[in-house]
Each structure stands twice: as structure tokens, then as C-alpha cells.
Specification:
Strand order of the largest sheet: 1-6-5-4-3-2
GO molecular function: nucleic acid binding
Oligomer: single chain
CATH architecture of the largest domain: 3-Layer(aba) Sandwich
Order of helices and strands: HHHHHHHHHEHHEEEHEHEH
Strand content: 15-25%
Distance between the termini: 91 Å
Organism: Nitrosomonas stercoris
Largest sheet: 6 strands, mixed
Protein name: Putative nuclease YhcG
Number of strands: 6
Number of domains: 3
Pfam families: DUF1016_N, YhcG_C
InterPro entries: PD-DEXK-like_domain, tRNA_endonuc-like_dom_sf, YhcG_C, YhcG_N
């Protein structure tokens, strides 16, 4: 009868083997994915170069893709559907030699990206998917919610171009903001009547989607976070900690228009967290009031000489008007700055 293996040594061995296997399997999958994308790019190259080989070949048009799909599927199976070949061709056209696709994204990611005709928008989503390690489902959601257009709508031309080339770089409190925030994942009709507590509960129940909408770096701390001053209890709707900016982010939800006392209350919360909750290496807290509507003039006056890290942002329960946002950005990009 064999001797029993000591639990501590065996568990350590088990963990080492398990972690080695997991890391190796992930590396193998990544290597396969990298090679697959490169192969599809080369297939696209062959198709484009054949089309450019003369007038007679160019006249094949869509018929070439259809014939290739039928013949290649007979030889190699399902990977050569007509739509897949169209995207392979696009991959080569939109990532010419010297602009190779990233190894960090899968072919399914690139199919989603290739659906975007605008190179600025496509560049943003590619960079953001890499930075935030979006799954394909997360990429689809952010495209559907027009994230790039929402972030770009309030920026100047140089900032829009930077956003497209680098993604959203979070370096200061303003970089966290989106206008509007979109909560379509709650599936609450625009005419649906909900209370602030119901909205807060719904966001807490859909925390994964809410964190995706907030952006990279947020970790959830608590809901209805209680603070006590002078024997009076107050509650912050939602409290997060931002790992990149190293600070608390306090969020209050308002169903209607923000009032001046809502802003004063948030400023109170910020003061409390700065004095009572912050650790020595934490940065000053950020406060965001999310409302359905806001009076810009009231917000300007109510925040006069107040904490510069207090923001009032709008949210909506449905997807934004993509065409309207697109027009705003195109107008900004075409704008000739007066000297």
C-alpha cells in the first residue's frame, strides 16, 4: 500500500501544475488566434491582388467571392463562408502592410470592427478593446451604445483624433465622464415610471453592465453607503473606488432635474470622504450626480467656487441618436478654427 502524500506539499504541486497548464493553454489559444488572424489577412491579400490583376478579373465582382466560398468550403469546411471571405478582404484593405492587426484581439473582434466604415471610430474601438480587454459581447454593446460618439461629441478636433488613435486614457477626473450615460441594459422603457431607489437597485443588480458603462478602473464599494455627522445619518447612493486615479467616486441618482441642494449635498459627501474615509495615499474623491435633465446655468452657479471634482452628468434609458452625434463630430472635424 502506497504512503499518503503530505497535504501541504501535494497541494503546492497541484497548484503549480494547474497554473502552468492554465497559462500554457491560454498562450496556445492566443498563438492559434494570432496565426488565424494573420492567415485571414493573407487570404484577403490574395483576393485583392487577384482582383487588381486586370480588367477581366475585376469584372468578376461579387461573383468571385461566391465562387471562392463554394470551392474553399468543399476543401476546408465552414471557415470560408461568403461573409467570412468578405471580412478577410476588408481586413487586408483596412490594415494594409505596415498596419497589421493586433495580436490581442480575436477574429470575432475584428469582424465587429470591420463593420465600422469610419476609420476614426474603428480605431477607437480597437484601442479600447485592447486597453479594457473587452469580450466580443462587450465590444458589441459599446458599439451599440455609440461610446466613441458620446465621448467625442464634447471634444475638439485634436482631442477626437487623439481619442481615435489611443482610446480613452484616464489621467484626470474629467476623463471618467460620459455624456450621456446609457442604461439601456436595464430594459426600462423611456416612459417607464421608476423611483430613484428602484433605479439604484436595478443598477446594482446589473453591476457588470454598469461597470462596463462607467469604464475601466472602477471597483464597487457599496450601495446606500451610510455616513454620520452630528448624529445625522446620510446615505450615498453608490460608492466606487477608481484604481487608476486612486480615489473614491461617489454617485447620486436623480430622476428629474438637478436642484441646487443636490449639488450642495454631494459637496458635503465629498468633504466627508476626504476627511474621514481617505487613506494617506488616496487622492481627493470625485462626485458625479446622474440626472435625466440638467439646467446648465443652475449647475454653473450652484458649483461656483465649489469643489472642482463635482460633476453633473445626464443619463438616459435608451440608446442615443447615433446620426445626431455623428453630425456633431463631423461638424467639429470640418470646422476651420479662426486665427
Amino acid at each position: 500500500m502506497s504512503k499518503l502524500i503530505p497535504d501541504d506539499n501535494y497541494q503546492e504541486l497541484l497548484e503549480h501544475i494547474s497554473s502552468t497548464y492554465t497559462a500554457g493553454r491560454a498562450a496556445a489559444l492566443q498563438a492559434v488566434n494570432t496565426q488565424l488572424v494573420k492567415t485571414y489577412w493573407q487570404v484577403g491579400q490574395h483576393i485583392v491582388e487577384f482582383e487588381q490583376g486586370g480588367k477581366d478579373r475585376a469584372e468578376y465582382g461579387a461573383g468571385l467571392i461566391t465562387k471562392l466560398s463554394a470551392d474553399l468550403r468543399l476543401r476546408h469546411g465552414r471557415g470560408f463562408s461568403r461573409s467570412n471571405l468578405i471580412y478577410m478582404r476588408l481586413l487586408y484593405l483596412r490594415y494594409p502592410i505596415g498596419q497589421t492587426p493586433s495580436d490581442l484581439l480575436s477574429w470575432s473582434h475584428y469582424v465587429e470592427l470591420l463593420m465600422l466604415d469610419d476609420p476614426l471610430e474603428r480605431g477607437f474601438y480597437e484601442q479600447q478593446a485592447i486597453i479594457e480587454r473587452w469580450s466580443v459581447a462587450e465590444l458589441k454593446r459599446q458599439k451599440a451604445s455609440s461610446l466613441f460618439l458620446r465621448l467625442a461629441a464634447s471634444k475638439d478636433k485634436a482631442s477626437i483624433l487623439q481619442l481615435a488613435q489611443q482610446g480613452q486614457v484616464v489621467a484626470q477626473p474629467e476623463d471618467l465622464l460620459r455624456e450621456p450615460y446609457v442604461f439601456e441594459f436595464l430594459k426600462i422603457p423611456e416612459t417607464g415610471l421608476v423611483s430613484e431607489s428602484q433605479l439604484e437597485a436595478a443598477l446594482s443588480q446589473h453591476l457588470q453592465q454598469f461597470l462596463l458603462e462607467l469604464g475601466k478602473g472602477f471597483t464597487f464599494v457599496g450601495r446606500q453607503y451610510r455616513i454620520t455627522m452630528g448624529g445625522t445619518h446620510y446615505r450615498v447612493d453608490l460608492v466606487f473606488y477608481h484604481r487608476i486615479l486612486r480615489c473614491f467616486v461617489l454617485i447620486d441618482l436623480k430622476l428629474g432635474n438637478v436642484q441646487h441642494h443636490d449639488i450642495g449635498q454631494m459637496n458635503l459627501y465629498l468633504g466627508y470622504f476626504a476627511k474621514e474615509e481617505n487613506q494617506p495615499d488616496d487622492n481627493p474623491p470625485i462626485g458625479i450626480i446622474l440626472s435625466r435633465d440638467k439646467d446648465e446655468l443652475l449647475v454653473e452657479y450652484a458649483t461656483y467656487q465649489m469643489n472642482s471634482q463635482l460633476f453633473v452628468q445626464k443619463y438616459q434609458l435608451y440608446l442615443p441618436d447615433r446620426e445626431e452625434l455623428q453630425r456633431e463630430i463631423e461638424q467639429t472635424l470640418r470646422k476651420v478654427e479662426k486665427e
